Amino acid sequence: VQLQASGGGLVQAGGSLRLSCAASGSTVSFVDMAWYRQAPGNERELVATINSGGFTKYADSVKGRFTISRDNAKNTLYLQMDSLKPEDTAVYYCKRGYSLWGQGTLVTVSS
Fold it and tell me: What DSSP designation does 86 have?
């Protein structure tokens, strides 16, 4: 059972990125999924969640800019990030359920 996160990179402020989290050996459908991030020197923080019924929630800092979604056919979770800011710079992790984490993908936003 594995989660493989990808899509990170270097982008200028105001730009966009889409992160992906592909699941193998497990499903992303009908289960709670989430994106977290951890900036250098900071604790890991919750960015967005999507529950088994498709209901989404966002941290105040990303509300209106980020969109969490999943494609059940591709067994993949996504995080569309628009209007990126330098303070969004962090390693982003996907999580399935209570304890299954992906390996992280680095997002760097330059000013």
Answer: G
